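Mods, move this if it's the wrong board.
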Amino acid sequence: MNVLITGGSGRLAGYVAREFADHQVVLTDVRPPPDDRARLPFVAADLTDFADCRRVIAESEPEAIVALGAIPYATDRVGRAAGGPPFDTTMRVNVLGLYYLLTAAAEAGVRKLVQTSSVVAMKGGATTYRYLPIDDDHPTTVTESYIFSKLAGETMLQWFWRAHGIHSVACRPAWIWSPEQLQEHARTIAPTTEWESGLWHYVDIRDVARAHRLLFDALERLPPAECYYAGAADHRAPEESRELIERLRPELAGSIPIDLSGRQAFVSYAKAQAAVGYQPRHSWTDWR
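Not the wrong board. Structure tokens:
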């Protein structure tokens, strides 16, 4: 099957391309891919240019798309700094770029797509949570453009399923870490002294790539435009989960039912596990 991977020059795309090595993979991005992907077909294109989206689909003739291309932070928070990207880059790439890609795909008859969303679509910018561990049904607090862009992208998948029959699902990865980053974290880990509103979530990049493949393989039997969180089984703090709550946020321990054991993550991937058998294989503790 011909599979087009957007964001093909990014770090995640290298791992995803390996997961799809049994398919005919074509990469697209605004810049050429690094040497580890130099053997793969590549079409230069800018997601924020509709003509480019049309052209890359015409040239690659994909039967399915893995839409990794996105800005992973809010550029309107940093974009005004000297040398930073334009303030609206997150919105243009993550919202308008996805719209152009989906529109071009619909015109060309592409009907399968896996999109990379984010844990922020279920966690948002919350500093408090209604329950722990949170899951894909937890309400989201929108506090910045990046969170909004991911929620908008997921809503767009629903739109294009109803209007154009594009069967898609979204993967919601936690904070993506490379093996090298996890090894360094294990080397420098220190006792936790304060609560982290992000719940210490993370995921090994290899597990994220595998999650995309699992969702892709199950696409036809999954509900259209559904979303699935992919994270690590544990968190980045060295202490056990219940100890962290009781010491740093005792009000949560007394008021919210918490079923946690050991260093179990505060964000649940149970939905992806039940749907496609997702089970993270890697942890920063592999290097302890």
